[in-house]
């Protein structure tokens, strides 16, 4: 899979930008604040329908504009697909595939598969559980775009159910939302558990390849015990558990069971990575999670595009080499850097120099 063309209209700092790409590594070099990460962000948004930098759409739209447009031409398995996405701040986004409107923007998920690295990846190790849940859910969507619907429906149900609990709604008003919470929660838990089981060997191997001494592993930490990759089993467990916590939920005004309360546990040797890992070990774990994700997708027949966003300046030589080795496996890689000398020579074959509002070769 590779992106052959990218056009941005009123996206962040770019009023109009049109770029053509070939296979292999493409590097964007520019000072901090020049807009190089905006280009990477547009591709990430196209892949996940969300930004890795902001939680709403308004900052993505150029000042004074009503909407931003991302248009990409993608080649995959001998086919060419044009994806157009119109980003709006106060109404639903609109999308087109090969110039044909689609009913929901979610229909473009899977057209572009991406694994990205950024300085924010340290949050996967040191940050709150929400970062790790988001990491798992984005990887699930990359694997199977249909799961975006399950994740979205689950989040909607939790929000509505919590609103009812806070307002002391009667039990009969809660029943349909509780049933949906369990139905979607059982599915999402099963998918996450299977994903973590599949990902764990790759994380362990990649961490070892970084010459780290302690063994690394990951596991799924559920707020409800005994869940598995079996959906039916999870429905039974969650149903029984919900009955147990029903009174507490009414008292506290919040849903106390379900995957919105779960976490991805990262282990280094005898200790959890969070709170115990050094700065270097935290980077090694974050890199192992991202490269492991790439390895897993590759093993399933996918060819995701790699994005390395301002990451080389953060890493020592060994970790830079590990990332560089992954780019050799990828059909296409996009790299951003403030300082050209931070990058290995083999990543500098195609370069764009970025200044505010433009990127030129």
From TrEMBL:
InterPro entries given in the database record: DNA-binding_RecF (IPR001238), DNA-binding_RecF_CS (IPR018078), P-loop_NTPase (IPR027417), RecF/RecN/SMC_N (IPR003395), RecF_2 (IPR042174)
Location of this chain's protein in the cell: Cytoplasm
Keywords: ATP-binding, Cytoplasm, DNA damage, DNA repair, DNA replication, DNA-binding, Nucleotide-binding, SOS response
Residues holding ATP: 30-37
Residue ranges occupied by any RecF/RecN/SMC N-terminal domain in the UniProt entry: 3-337
One cellular-component annotation, GO: cytoplasm
GO BP terms, alphabetized: DNA replication; DNA synthesis involved in DNA repair; double-strand break repair; SOS response
GO MF entry, a single one: ATP binding
UniProt key word Calcium: no
Record-stated family: Belongs to the RecF family.
Protein task: The RecF protein is involved in DNA metabolism; it is required for DNA replication and normal SOS inducibility. RecF binds preferentially to single-stranded, linear DNA. It also seems to bind ATP.
Protein name: DNA replication and repair protein RecF
């Amino acid at each position: 899979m590779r992106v052959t063309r990218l056009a941005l209209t009123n996206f962040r700092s770019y009023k109009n930008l049109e770029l053509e790409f070939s296979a292999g590594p493409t590097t964007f070099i520019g000072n901090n604040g020049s807009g190089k990460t905006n280009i990477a962000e547009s591709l990430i948004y196209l892949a996940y329908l969300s930004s890795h930098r902001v939680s709403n759409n308004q900052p993505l739209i150029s000042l004074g504009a009503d909407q931003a447009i991302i248009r990409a031409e993608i080649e995959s398995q001998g086919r060419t697909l044009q994806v157009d996405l119109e980003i709006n701040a106060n109404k639903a986004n609109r999308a087109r595939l090969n110039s044909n409107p689609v009913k929901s923007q979610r229909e473009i998920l899977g057209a572009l598969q991406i694994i990205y690295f950024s300085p924010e990846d340290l949050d996967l190790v040191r940050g709150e559980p929400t970062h790790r849940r988001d990491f798992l859910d984005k990887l699930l969507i990359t694997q199977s775009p249909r799961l975006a619907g399950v994740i979205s429906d689950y989040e909607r149900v939790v929000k509505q159910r919590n609103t009812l609990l806070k307002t002391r709604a009667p039990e009969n008003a809660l029943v349909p939302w509780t049933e949906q919470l369990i139905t979607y929660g059982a599915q999402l838990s099963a998918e996450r558990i299977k994903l973590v089981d599949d990902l764990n060997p790759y994380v362990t191997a990649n961490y070892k390849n970084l010459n780290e001494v302690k063994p690394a592993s990951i596991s799924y930490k559920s707020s409800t015990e005994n869940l598995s990759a079996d959906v039916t089993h999870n429905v039974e467990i969650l149903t029984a558990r919900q009955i147990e916590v029903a009174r507490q939920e009414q008292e506290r005004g919040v849903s106390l069971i379900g995957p919105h309360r779960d976490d991805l546990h990262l282990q280094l040797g005898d200790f959890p990575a969070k709170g115990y890992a050094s700065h270097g070990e935290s980077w090694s774990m974050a890199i192992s999670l991202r490269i492991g994700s790439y390895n897993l997708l590759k093993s399933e027949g996918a060819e995701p595009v790699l994005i390395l966003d301002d990451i080389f300046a953060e890493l020592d030589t060994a970790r830079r080499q590990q990332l560089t080795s992954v780019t050799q496996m990828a059909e296409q890689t996009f790299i951003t850097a403030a300082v050209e000398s931070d990058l290995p020579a083999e990543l500098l074959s195609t370069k764009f120099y970025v200044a505010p509002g433009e990127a030129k070769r």
